[in-house]
Every structure is written in structure tokens, then in C-alpha cells.
Amino acid sequence: MATGRTHRPATRSRGIPEATVARLPLYLRALTALSERSVPTVSSEELATAAGVNSAKLRKDFSYLGSYGTRGVGYDVEYLVYQISRELGLTQDWPVVIVGIGNLGAALANYGGFASRGFRVAALIDADAAQTGKMVAGLPIRHTDELESIISDNLVSIGVIATPAGAAQEVCDRLVAAGVTSILNFAPTVLSVPDGVDVRKVDLSIELQILAFHEQRKAGEELGEAVATARKAVRRPGSDGDVPAVMPV
Amino acid sequence: MATGRTHRPATRSRGIPEATVARLPLYLRALTALSERSVPTVSSEELATAAGVNSAKLRKDFSYLGSYGTRGVGYDVEYLVYQISRELGLTQDWPVVIVGIGNLGAALANYGGFASRGFRVAALIDADAAQTGKMVAGLPIRHTDELESIISDNLVSIGVIATPAGAAQEVCDRLVAAGVTSILNFAPTVLSVPDGVDVRKVDLSIELQILAFHEQRKAGEELGEAVATARKAVRRPGSDGDVPAVMPV
DNA sequence: GAATGTGAAGGCTTTCACAGCT
DNA sequence: AGCTGTGAAAGCCTTCACATTC
């Protein structure tokens, strides 16, 4: 989930469990799709399938929000969209800044899912002066020097860090000092922040490593090691420093 | 976590809990950093801090791998790096394909974290014939027509989907039919896959929505709604279809 | 009849706290 | 003396299954 510490303990924030909060965006997306097809109502079973969860879990999740369904009928799509949006705080406008406009930062700036869900990219910030003024996704890249004034001028409380790992903590410190209280971190490093600041982390290589773990298990169990062996043979000689052949014991 | 279904139930795969598997990459990264600084041993307390977890959790996690520490001393860094790498399957080479070379796909192709941890980008694939042959991150973009042959020629079992949502399921189906059994999905859509195929999902806008939820709580609790109100006032008029003002009840 | 809302049961995960090595 | 490894306790989360409502 989010950071190491920093989340207030299981956020009793009006009683909605973290696990439920994490699924609300899923439901919202499925509901938005139904809404666009003008579907008026949906059952927990149908919606659960569309969102990729099971229906008991979905009903339990919704029960934390209130009794928004009708027995024998299901849920009113528009109404639920509104309630979940409100619960997530998407009925207000959230200006965000993206710091670090490399490949990933540019991809994020261009990502439609932000603008379409209550988020507005207030500014793109990069430390490289040579990039300043360059347009990305319709916005000019601004220099890190302006970071503090951008934050306060736009009432920004959410920052996205897409810098190299080495720069992330300093950027984080400056964001927090300037008033940012929620950070989405794409840099592969652990950020330390004061109490009251939320950090969520997205790490591309971690996800792949988890897949590799399960993939390895499959190969071992189901293919009798044959494929694993074939792959091992292919391994390049000087791959990287991560698997030193030496070891004690 | 991963998909809706599809994970074998709590993967008893030699007894390592999912939650632990998800943290192993974190430990590995922290350990790799220590290794680069030639630190020989580390205590659970120090390593836990570096990885952003608490030490009891870390020790419990390691206990599932075996007894790799020394009481009164700590853990041997190099040895642990090797053991965790092996457990995660990173001592073998994992060829991956990235499908959909837009902004995000290009960012992924350039992402150093892949190559440095046992993963090798075997090919970049895009449906746009105009892009075919263009070089990205040192590799030529290849056309979707070649997908099946690329998969089988390279023994690829892990695929990364970075296409628009509309194309994701079809790409997924083709990957699976060609032999891919693990998928990392960046497209904002639920993929359905047969049993035995793992899907993990990374969704940028979902992470932001979760942050917004907590941010909203903070604003309400700590600032007496003042900032929230200020932000609300700023909301652009015709934002999007996600919060229709209408609703029953 | 159909589908929600929810106690209760069952599983996982985290945390505690201390026995057991070095 | 210091630090790991781990039962036991506590807390979450998921799933079951059914009373309740429309």
C-alpha cells in the first residue's frame, strides 16, 4: 500500500477501510462506462464482474458508504457515480504538479486519466534549464526554481515525482516545505516525510519482480523445469551487479 | 494487488505469503544499495528503515525464506541479495515484450530498473505501421503482426501492455494465445484471462484518486473546510462526465 | 422472485514480546 | 549484550449465507 509509515493508523476516517477506498476508483471506472452507455441500473453481480472483484466484496464495500442500492433491483448508476466521486473527493478540483519531465513525466502529463477525473495538471517542473519553456502536453516546462511559487500560487496539495531516484528526496522535501501533503512517487526510492504527509509509490520493476516470482513457480511446477533451464542458458554473461556469484555459508 | 481472480488461491507456493513476496523487491533494492557501498552486514532494524517497513515485519518475512541471519550480528548483505534474487527468480533471464509504444511504452523501454534486475526487453511492439522500424531505447519498433513469432522465438512469458484501453483485451488475448502467462497491465481496463495466467495492474489515476480521498479528509479535519472551499470555487465549469449533477433520491 | 445489506466465520497480515543463539 | 527467529495475540479483510426489503 502506501508508504512505510505516514498513513494515520488504518485511517478510521469516517470508518471506510483502506482496502475499500483502494477499490472505489475501480467501481467508479466501471460505473462511468455504464453511464456512458446510458445503463440506468446495475446489480452487484454485474458491476462486480465489470470491476473484476466478487459481488460479496462489492456489496460490503458499498455498505460502508451507506445504503445506496434497492433490494430486488440493484444500484442506480448515476447516483452511485456521484456518491463515489464525492466520497473520493473528486467533486472538487485537484491541481497537481509533475516534477521531472523525462520519458515518464511526459507520459504522465499526456495521460488522459488525470484530467478526466478531477485532477488538473497545474504545472510541469524540471531541473534541466535547457528544457525550460519547452511545451509538453500543451504546458510549458518550468524550472525547479519556481517550484515553491507554483505550489502556493495554485494551492497545490498533490505532487507527482518522476525524477531519477537521486533527486527524489530533495524534490520531496521542497514540495512538502511548500505545502504539498500528498505525494505520488515514481522514483525507485523510499521517501521520508513528516507525519501528516501521504506518500504512495508506483514501482514498475517491483511489479515485474512479483510476476517473475509467480512465473518461476509455474515453470517449476508445471513444465518440469525444462523451460526454466532453457531460459537460464540464454542469460547474458555480464548482466548486472544484482546476483553476485559469491556467497558465504 | 493483482487481478480480480486468477491468482491461485493465496499461492501456497512453498509457503511464502503474498504480502511477503510483494516486499522482497523492496528489501532487494535496499540491500543492493548497501552492497554497492560495500556494507558487509546489516541488522533487521537498519534494513527495515532503509526499506521503509518495521523490523518485526522484516524478520518475519525473512523467516519464510529460511534462517539467513546471525543472532547478535545481523544479516550478511551479499548472501541475502543472492537468496532474495533466487527466491524472486531473478537469477534467470526474463525476456519481456512491451506492447504499445506511446509515451508510456517508450518510458518503460527506457526504464533502467528493468534491465538491471534480470529482465530483458526482447521487443517493442506497436500496432501503428508508421512507427515500425523506428528506434526506441536502442530497439526497433516491430509491428503487431509479428507478435506471435516474437513471443515464441524468444520464449517470452511476460508481457507488458501499454496500449490504449480499447486495444488491451485483444492484445492480451493474443499474448496469452502465443504463450505469455504473466501480464503487467498499464491500460485502465480489467483484463480477463484464463486460469493460470497472472495479471498485475498499474493504474496511475487510481493512485491519485486514493491520495485525493485522504487529502480531502485532511482538508476537512484540519483546515476547517476553508481550503476545500477555495479549491471547489476554482473548479472548471465543463470538466468531464464523471460527476453529473443529477441524482435520484 | 430478485437482489441488497450484514452478522458471523474464516483467513491473512501485522505486531508483540521474548526465548534462544552468538 | 545484542539481535534474530517465532509462537501467540490482535487486527484487518474476505467470504459465507441468509434475513430483509422491494
What does this entry show, briefly?
Two copies of one chain form a homodimer. The first copy, chain A, has helices at 18-36, 44-51, 55-65, 77-88, 103-110, 112-115, 147-153, 165-178, 204-222, 226-234, and strands spanning 41-42, 69-70, 74-76, 94-99, 119-126, 135-136, 139-143, 158-161, 182-185, 198-201.
Give an overview of the whole structure.
The structure is a homodimer of 249-residue chains. With 249 residues, chain A is an alpha/beta fold. Chain A folds into three domains: 9-87, Winged helix-like DNA-binding domain superfamily/Winged helix DNA-binding domain (Arc Repressor Mutant, subunit A, Orthogonal Bundle); 94-202, NAD(P)-binding Rossmann-like Domain (Rossmann fold, 3-Layer(aba) Sandwich), CATH 3.40.50.720; 212-244. Helices cover 45% and strands 16% of the residues of chain A. Chain A is built from ten helices and ten strands. Chain A has helices spanning 18-36, 44-51, 55-65, 77-88, 103-110, 112-115, 147-153, 165-178, 204-222, 226-234; strands spanning 41-42, 69-70, 74-76, 94-99, 119-126, 135-136, 139-143, 158-161, 182-185, 198-201. Chain A has a seven-stranded mixed beta sheet. A three-stranded antiparallel beta sheet of chain A has the order 1-3-2. In chain A, β2 and β3 (74-76) form a beta hairpin. Chain A is globular and about 60 Å long. The two termini of chain A are 35 Å apart. The interface between A and B is large, with 106 and 106 residues. The structure holds a DNA duplex (22 and 22 nucleotides).
